Amino acid sequence: MEYFDAEYAVESIREKYNKEHGIKECKVEDDYTKRKRFEKQVYRLLIMHNVPYSKKDEKKTFEEYLLSDDENTSKTKGAKLKHSTKAKRRNNHNAGKEHEMKEEEDVDERIASIKNKMRQKKRPTTERQQKRREAKKLKRSKGVQKLLQSSAKIMKNENIKQNKLKNGVIKTVSNKDGEEEPDSKSKIQPIQQKPVFNEESKIVYSKIDFAATPGAKTKKSHKNPKEILKELKQTSQQINELKEQGQSDKAAELQNSIAWKKAFDKIEGKKVKDDTKLLQKAIKKKKVEKRAAKKKWEERKQKVDHDIAKRQKKRQENLDKRSKDKKNKKLKKASKKGRIIPGY
C-alpha cells in the first residue's frame, strides 16, 4: 500500500463497500475526468513496476550498471544499486507530480489564448459604446449623482418660471441694459372668466346664444304611432271639410303651415312621421310584440308557480319524514328499556 495515495485508497474502499452492500452509484463523468482517472491508473502502474519516467533518466543511470577499472568499486556496487533504486522511485514520483502541474498550466494557457482570440474577433468599439461606458462610470460616482440632482432641480425651477411668464403670473421689469427680468414681488393674477348660463340653465360657450327658441323648451315628438295617426286623420278631415264648405284659401293656408312645420322639424333634427302606411305597420308590430311579451310572461308565471309548488311539496315531505323518524326513535328507545310495543 506504500505506492497508493490516500485518494485512491478511499476510492477503492468505497467501491468495495458498495459492491458488498449492492449500492449502485449513478455517476455521470465527463471526458476530462475519465482521461484524468486513466492517467492516474497508468501513473500508479509505472510507479509500482519501477518504470523510468523518460529516456533521459535511462542515460543518466546507464553508467551505474557498468564495471569500473578500480578494485574498490566491487565493494560499493550493491550499496550503489540500492541507493539508485530508491532515488529512481523518488524521481518518478516527483516527475509525475510535475507532469500533472505542467498539464494544468498548459490547459490554463490554452484557455487564456482562446479568450484572447475571442476578444480579438469582436468588432472594435464604436463612439456610441464608448460614450455609454463613460456615462455609466460617471453615474457610479456619488459626486456626479449629486451634481445631476442639483442641475435637474435648477432646470425644473427655470421651466416653472418660464411657464409663469408666459401665462402672465410674474410681471417683467426692464433692466439698465434694456433686458427684461421677472419681478418676483409684484404678481399679477389672471382674470378668471365666469361661465354664462342661458334661460334653460345651460352653459353658453359663445358670446351669442344661437338657440332656435331661447325661451321655450322644445317639445318632444309623439312616440305613440296611434296618436300620430289620429292627428293626421283629424287634419286631413279638417282640410276636406273646408274644401266642401268652399273655403279653399283657408285649406291652402292650413296645408302650407303644416308643410312649413315639417320643414322646420327636419332642420331641428326631429323625425317627421307623416306616412300613414309606416305608422300602421308600426302599430301592427307593437301589437305583435305585446302578444309575444304576454305569452312569455304567462309562461314565466306558470314556471314560477310550478317551482313554488314543487319546493313546498318537498318541504312537506321532509317535515313528515322527520316527524316519523322522531316517533320511530322514541319507540325503539322504549322497546329497549322493556316496554312491549308491537312491531318493535
End-to-end separation = 92 Å
Number of domains: 4
Strands of the widest sheet, in order across it, are 1-2
Number of helices: 9
Category by helix and strand content = mainly alpha
Poorly predicted regions: 71-77
Beta fraction: under 5%
> Could you describe the largest sheet, including whether it forms a barrel?
2 strands, antiparallel
Elements, N to C (H/E)? HHHHHHEEEEHHH
| Coarse shape | flat
What value does the average pLDDT take? 75
Radius of gyration: 58 Å
Number of strands: 4
Q: What level of helicity do the residues show? A: 55-70%
Features:
4 strands, two-stranded antiparallel sheet, Rrp14/SURF6_C, 344 residues, flat, mainly alpha, 4 domains, RNA binding, DNA binding, SURF6
Structure overview:
The protein has 4 domains: 96 residues, no CATH class; 32 residues; 49 residues, no CATH class; 67 residues. 67% of the residues lie in helices and 5% in strands. The protein contains 9 helices and 4 strands; from the N terminus they run ααααααββββααα. A two-stranded antiparallel sheet has the order 1-2. Strand 3 and strand 4 form a beta hairpin. Helix 7 runs antiparallel to helix 8. It is flat, with a radius of gyration of 58 Å. The chain starts with 5 loop residues before the first helix and ends in a 7-residue tail after the last helix. About 2% of the residues have low confidence. It comes from Drosophila mojavensis. This is Ribosomal RNA-processing protein 14/surfeit locus protein 6 C-terminal domain-containing protein.
